[in-house]
Design a protein that fits this description.
- The protein has 102 residues and is an alpha+beta fold.
- The protein has helices at 20-30, 38-46, 60-101; strands at 2-3, 9-11, 47-50, 55-58.
- It has 2 domains: 2-58, no CATH class; 61-102.
- It is built from 3 helices and 4 strands, in the order ββααββα.
- It has a two-stranded antiparallel sheet. A two-stranded antiparallel ribbon has the order 3-4.
- The mean pLDDT is 80.
Amino acid sequence: MVATPDGRMSRYFYGIDYVPADLRMALTEASQHKIGSPVDYVLLFCFHYDAAQGKYTLTIVNILKIAAGLTVVLLAGLIYLLMRGEKKQKMSRAWKEVRHVG
């Protein structure tokens, strides 16, 4: 059994053989952000406790949210780089044209 600091039961693991990663995530979750590293909190975002199975399982919806956000950031970066390169080419052409006029 894993309890919160105020004494409420947070998780109950069945049996006597616990997966160390599940126990660590249960302690991190129950600690109200007093135990665990930032990596543990990212893992808790991607995994949720499934009471029917008695363990932490992957939550695909949150994985898809992360992937969508990363895709948007990468596309915005690509658009920025392409627009910046196009602007440099226009300025280079304009500079060459001005130099040859005189």
